[in-house]
Write a structure and sequence with these properties.
Layout: E1 11-18, E2 22-29, E3 33-39, E4 41-46, E5 49-53, E6 57-61, E7 65-72, E8 79-86, H1 92-100, E9 110-112, H2 115-127, H3 134-151, H4 154-157, H5 165-174, H6 183-190, H7 194-203, H8 208-226, H9 231-237, H10 243-254, H11 258-263
Antiparallel strand pairs: 1-8, 2-7, 3-6, 3-8, 4-5, 4-7, 6-9
Length: about 270
């Protein structure tokens, strides 16, 4: 069954830029995503591994993981990347086809970008600026899913964590990160008891406040990329009434303050 309701977006496109190195840690991924670095390099640190993502490769990320990386401008241009986040579950037959096509020669989370894949990615990202119906968006998205299934990497995006309660709750919070969410209200919306919600999140190794904070911090990064604004405005848009509390939480999560991060962006 699809994990989105009819007429809700089936994907989202976010762009990121940087005029100087951006050292970020624990960037939470709450929806399966493909990141295409158009200029510059993203150096990713994953456990004991380190690898670079440039314009010739894509980074594939499943849900509920924290990315550690450095976005590096090139000598000729700023860093620039496009990220597509997916909210629609692929058909089972596509996932099965992807698993059957899996190649051990492929890096688990990085794939070489081909002209055909670039075409599918660009076509989908361009539809983000158009007022298309849910059905039309879905057709475009399924076409890219089919390309990824034929390559044997679609199931890497949609790992078992996609079906976790933590992921459901993250997508729920992401609809309005500024909302003052209360545990009782959220339980009512999910038609579950307080004890059940807490138990299901414990099973995923997390808790209510952590999931909400991760979504709000990811939202903050996106807001900063869109336009330069005051730290207080950012805090309010992310559900924090205190500017200092917002800055403290941002620094705790990413290893740099909001002001430091905004200085790296070219507006």
């Amino acid at each position: 069954m699809d994990k989105v309701m009819l007429n809700e977006p089936v994907f989202r496109v976010q762009t990121y830029s940087g005029q100087s190195d951006q050292h970020l840690r624990n960037v939470h991924i709450y929806a399966p995503s493909i990141i295409w670095v158009k200029s510059g390099v993203k150096t990713v640190f994953q456990e004991s591994e380190q690898f670079d993502i440039d314009s010739h490769s894509w980074l594939l990320t499943s849900t509920n993981q924290g990315l550690n990386f450095i976005n590096k401008p090139s000598s000729m241009d700023n860093f620039y990347s496009v990220q597509i986040c997916f909210f629609l579950t692929p058909p089972r037959e596509m996932l099965e086809e992807s698993q059957s096509n899996e190649s051990t020669r492929l890096h688990t989370h990085a794939i070489t970008m081909s002209p055909l894949l670039a075409y599918g990615f660009t076509l989908l990202s361009d539809t983000n600026t158009q007022k298309l119906s849910f059905q039309t968006q879905q057709f475009h998205l399924l076409a890219l899913y089919q390309q990824l299934a034929e390559l044997g990497v679609l199931h890497v995006l949609f790992s078992p964590t996609f079906a976790s309660f933590q992921n459901e709750l993250s997508v729920y919070f992401a609809k309005d990160p500024a909302e003052a969410y209360q545990l009782k209200t959220v339980c009512d919306d999910f038609s579950i008891s307080r004890a059940t919600l807490i138990r299901r999140l414990q099973r995923d190794g997390t808790n209510f406040r952590t999931v909400l904070s991760n979504v709000r911090m990811s939202h903050a990064l996106g807001l900063m990329q869109e336009k330069k604004q005051s730290q207080l405005d950012l805090a309010l848009q992310c559900g924090y009434q205190s500017e200092s509390r917002f800055s403290q939480r941002f620094h705790q999560q990413f290893g740099m303050t909001p002001k430091q991060y905004m200085k790296t962006i070219s507006y």
